């Protein structure tokens, strides 16, 4: 039997701080290790033929964290984008940042604009970084866009909403960090997605763990209510 591979995979990267705490390390070390794992899963996903990969890296709620931690994460994101932009482009990966980017610091917005412009025509894989992202905020923005387009009430359908969102429907969501919830991640797009909860913290997630999640997904029957 041919193994089914999700077209769009979403990953909630959870557990960086708890991983660090259990090892007696500062939370910054957990985030640094988590970034290394991000680079790895991009490679693993592309190798397996996944066409859209969306990584939940910083939520709208994460702005409530301590200022020094938030600043560190913003700098880490900028450094990662600048360091890997040419690599992503060479590999045919189109990079998109989804979320409330107006809240991001100027230096990060500049890095985002640069990488999105560089990779916008790439076709091998779409890589979404959900940054300053919230599912409810995304739906609010979709409604605002529909109102701006002056689409009549009678013309508004589920498809209309979907067309005004930041990304498409998900096939599979993997969440690490020992929690079993989706935490406001792509809540419209997750309506019919399969869910897989890993008992590992994000920094310790391995290629074997991904393979096990994909094997589990492949065995599921997706009926969509039929």
The fraction of residues assigned to DSSP E strands is: 15-25%
How many β strands by DSSP?
Answer: 6
Approximately how much helix is present in the residues? Answer: 40-55%
Instruction: Describe the largest sheet.
Output: 6 strands, parallel
Q: So what's the CATH class?
A: Alpha Beta
Query: Please, how many domains?
Result: 1
Instruction: Going across the biggest sheet, name each strand in turn.
Output: 3-4-2-1-5-6
Integer average pLDDT: 96
Which structural category fits the helices and strands? Answer: alpha/beta
CATH superfamily: Decaprenyl diphosphate synthase-like
User: How much is the radius of gyration in Å?
Assistant: 18 Å
Characterize the overall form: globular
Number of helices: 7
Q: If classified by CATH, what would the architecture be?
A: 3-Layer(aba) Sandwich
Low-pLDDT stretches: none
Q: How widely separated are the two ends?
A: 23 Å
- What fold name goes in the CATH topology slot? Undecaprenyl pyrophosphate synthetase
Order of helices and strands: EHHEHEHEHHEEH
């Amino acid at each position: 039997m041919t193994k089914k591979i999700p077209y769009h995979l979403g990953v909630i990267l959870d557990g960086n701080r708890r991983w660090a705490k259990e090892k007696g390390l500062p939370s910054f070390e957990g985030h640094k290790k988590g970034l290394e794992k991000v680079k790895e899963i991009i490679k693993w996903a592309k190798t397996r033929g996944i066409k859209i990969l969306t990584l939940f890296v910083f939520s709208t709620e994460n702005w409530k964290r301590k200022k020094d931690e938030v600043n560190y994460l913003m700098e880490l994101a900028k450094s990662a984008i600048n360091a890997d932009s040419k690599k992503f482009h060479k590999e045919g990966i189109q990079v998109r940042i989804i979320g409330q980017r107006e809240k991001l610091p100027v230096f990060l917005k500049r890095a985002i604009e640069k990488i999105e412009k560089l990779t916008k025509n790439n076709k091998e894989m779409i890589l979404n970084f959900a940054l300053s992202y919230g599912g409810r905020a995304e739906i609010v923005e979709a409604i605002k866009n529909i109102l701006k387009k002056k689409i009549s009430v009678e013309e508004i359908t589920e498809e209309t909403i979907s067309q005004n969102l930041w990304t498409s429907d998900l096939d599979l969501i993997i969440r690490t960090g020992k929690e079993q919830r989706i935490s406001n991640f792509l809540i419209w797009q997750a309506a019919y997605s399969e869910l897989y909860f890993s008992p590992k913290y994000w920094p310790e997630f391995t290629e074997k763990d991904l393979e096990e999640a994909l094997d589990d997904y492949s065995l599921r029957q997706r009926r969509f209510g039929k």
